[in-house]
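User: Structure tokens for this complex, please. No commentary.
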Amino acid sequence: MDNKKVIEVLNKALTEELTALVQYMQHHYLYKGSNAESVKVLLKKLSFTEMDHAYKLGDRIAALGGMPTTRPNPPEVPKKGVDMIKVNLKAEQDAVVSYREWIKIVDAEGDPTSRNILEGFLADEEEHVAELAALLGD
Ligand SMILES: [Fe+2]
Ligand SMILES: [Fe+2]
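Assistant:
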């Protein structure tokens, strides 16, 4: 098993999770629009899931002898509430595509433990897509 390749993939995932965490937090603070109270609750709940994903990735990277990244990408923060939902929906759809790819890579590297972790996240991201799409009435 090539730890270096797996660590690189897990750190890419960690960057995306940290970005999602920060973005959901910022959207939770700033969201205005219809059903603001319930949307803010959902955004906060999503941020906790992304933080849990980040912790699990960081722990796994450290267990493999790597250094977990601490850097998110800059969050997207649109002005309108409906646009916040849209950028998060797109980000979650992208996460689903990325996790499917990352699962294949860590599997090919012979790391079923990392594969299991990422499969759990994939299921969560699919659920996030559904929750955000429901808000838009899609
Ligand atoms: Fe996540
Ligand atoms: Fe998510």
